[in-house]
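Sequence only, no structure available. Ideas?
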Amino acid sequence: MTILQTLPALELLFFNLASIDLCCHRKYSRWKTALILAVFSVALLAFCLAFAEDISFRADGRMSLFGLIYMIPLHYLYRDKFPILFTVTCTCWVYTLGILALSFQFSLIWMSGSLTGILLAENLLYLVTFLPFYRLVIPKYIFVVEHIGRFEKNWHKYIFLNTCLNFLTLVVLVNVFLSQDPSPVNILALLLLLSTFYVSNFILHKVVQDAIRLGQIEREVTHDPLTGLCNRAGLWDRLNTLLEGNETFSVLFMDLDRFKSVNDQYGHLVGDAYLKHFADVSSGILAEQGTVYRFGGDEFVAIYYGAVPENVLGELRECRPWADGAPCPFYQVSVGSIICRPPHADNVETLLHKVDQMMYEQKINKHQKGGN
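Reply:
I predicted one. Tokens follow.
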């Protein structure tokens, strides 16, 4: 076997590694990564030349399967988890093996299967498909790989399985064609298979993109843009769910005292920071035991899972962690609370009205005592 005979496979290897580098996240610099892969490739090629009696590059996928050994340095050089790295690698193999298989078929039909014919067809196909693949296919595939983690964790497994099956289907089909007489129908079948694979990737990209947009729209509807908390709509949905169940929970209605004075004295930008800081502090106090919602203006509602302890109410009223990162001094908060035990008879509106009245009574009591 001469060096010239390895050129189709070396070209395939180059495009594979370049594609993987574009899709994955390097641990080291581009130059260090390229150097390690080059040294590994030279050592592997030297081993093949020294110990293999005959390695023929017949575009049958065997060398791509042999290329699995590259998962060792790739796993060391890139941050991505193995399933994602392997999925990206298989996707790149589908492209490069598809190009090589088409080149081999072109050469068999029109150039008697000569090495020159394979190289000529391969380079021509890379020239025609290089820009579309790297500008259209790779960015969309990177987008899918980076965002698929937002969905059910099994999605990674589905993509992994789908990509492996596509690659193995291509390998089997190529070997079937090699066992038959060359025919333009073989080329058509390869083109249809590759087109199906990439159209499915485009569809997957569109599905992920639309799902993200839908999630953003849903978040805009149910979340307050200033504090990042769920808004009144989110609160309504959650309370309806709890009232239909059999859990004990508490509802806390919180109204910031003298918030108008904060705006008047420090300005509305500080007022906004005041609201956001209270949202962060109150959420931190409740931690995993509860959720804070922005009800509107300077009013917040919290749901506490179980009967809320008095020490938690005291910590909320005093906002003890306030000083850390506070935009201005804390002017206190009035808190009304109610414990809801099953069976739940009230609806959301009645429940919120009751706890609002409790908050108002506490505020009146503070005024009467000369507090605020």
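The chain has a mean pLDDT of 85.
Hope that gets you unstuck.
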